[in-house]
Amino acid sequence: MQSKTISKTLLAICLAASSVANSFACTVLAIKDTNGNVYQGRTNEFAGQQPDDITYWPAGTKMESLTPDGKQGKTFNTKYGILAVTLKKLVPSAKQDSIHEGVNDQGVTITANAMINEIPLQVSGSADKVLAATDFGVWALGNFQNVAQIKKAIENKEVEIWLPKIPSMANYMAPLHFAMYDKVGGNIVIEFAGGKLAVYDNPAYVMTNDPPLPWHLTNLNNYAYLTNIDKNTGQFNNLKVAASDSGGNMAGLPGIETSVGRFVKAAFYSNFVQKAKTPDQAVKTLSHVMNNFDRPIDVSADKPGTASKAEAFAANKLSSESTYFTAMNDLSRNHFYLRTINSINFAKFDVRKLGALKQTKVVTFSAVNALSNMDATELFFK
Predict the structure, then answer these.
(1) Angle 167-173-179 (CA atoms, 0-180°, nearest 5)?
(2) Which of 65, 69, 79, 242 could be cross-linked to 73 through a Cys-Cys bond (beta carbons 3.0 to 4.6 Å apart)?
């Protein structure tokens, strides 16, 4: 009886979380090779405003943020070069575009995933420490060499973060949280649930969307039985049976594409996939893993008026949560890979080579899609 009650409670929570963000999703995970090198991947699913540019900011770029009342906030010059998938004017008054997925030349990545925040963060310090959450990416990647440094800076209150409203997302307060990885294996998640800033070490190495990370980690206890080892034979009384093929071990793996289901599936793949022996093999392995989270248009669709609150703009039309882009990072070699919804191949960017650039450069998704070869680095030198 108790187990049934727990199951019903978990289901209710899952459905509640899914109803908030049912068309507002992303999945991020990481794997390692046999030498411990880290490879991070993410998919982006959203029916609303999407990033259409890839921006490179060289070391020394001036970045500016704003306070909640529109005055000058945190200002700094970046120490490290940044390559990122960016969104234009997510906040109309922003001084620079917002990072959706990015990496710096030190092998640190950041992923912004959707998560509804309904209680504002309070800022009370001096304006020169105030940072909009939509500028968190440029601050974190522009100033730090690993996630431990970022965690310490937040704990030391080097910045005070606030949640600006996003007009293109029904005026929600920055409906996001962040996952960060580094090349030495560090992984943290930064969340703003309940009006409080929280930084978590993330032993699962994956992140999706609502509910907050601690809930997802607890929920994994319900999947302790998952294994990559098949059981292909059995017996029913006197009848001996044998499976005709393999894959039965994944019978208990969630097939549902909600945040809760994807978190479990991402943790399964991240944990059990074969560790590659070389970086090139690891990148190929990661690409196959990420294909499991790729959704074409209209495979998952919401009827008018049933999409998430943050997609109120789509209330009068069918909206579809599809994979707009997939990104991967080889953190040791500092290679960034991007595949858009209009491409079947990944384009590669060598972040170290981009260090030769001395000014901000922007490349459109369209330019990447038009490439006939796989290396997109040269686009920044045209």
Answers:
(1) 110
(2) 65
Q: Give the Cβ contact number of residue 93 at 10 Å.
A: 9
Q: Residue 283: what pLDDT? A: 99
Lowest mean pLDDT among 40-54, 82-96, 170-184: 40-54
Strand pairing report for 160-162 and 130-132: parallel
Lowest mean pLDDT among 23-27, 93-97, 270-274: 23-27
- Give dist(CA 322, CA 197) in Å, integer: 30
Number of domains in the chain: 1
Question: How far apart are alpha carbons 112 and 110 in whole angstroms?
Answer: 7
Residue 189 in this model has a pLDDT that exceeds 70: yes
Comparing 10-19, 43-52, 76-85, 86-95, the range with the smallest average pLDDT is 10-19
Res 20 pLDDT > 80: no
The CA distance from 359 to 367, in Å, is: 19
Q: Is residue 289 part of a domain?
A: yes
| Digit-coded pLDDT (tens) for 302-353 | 777 666 555 554 555 677 788 999 999 999 999 999 999 999 999 999 999 9
With the C-alpha atoms ordered 347, 47, 94, 80, is the resulting torsion angle positive or negative?
Answer: negative
DSSP state of 380: G
| Residue 271, amino acid | N
Would you state the structure tokens that stand for residue 35, as one six-digit string?
Answer: 């030498």
Position 274 pLDDT exceeds 50 = yes
The CATH number for 85's domain is 3.60.60.10
Q: Position of tokens 């969307």?
A: 209
Supply the pTM of this predicted model. 0.90
Q: Where are the alpha helices (DSSP H) in the chain?
A: 2-20, 136-143, 147-155, 213-219, 259-272, 279-291, 365-369
Flag whether 230 is in a domain. Answer: no
Domain contains 360 = yes
Domain that holds residue 83: 2-214+258-381
254 upstream amide cis, omega within 30 of 0: no
Cβ(78)–Cβ(142) below 8 Å: yes
Residue among 148, 157, 143, 144 at smallest CA distance from 188: 148
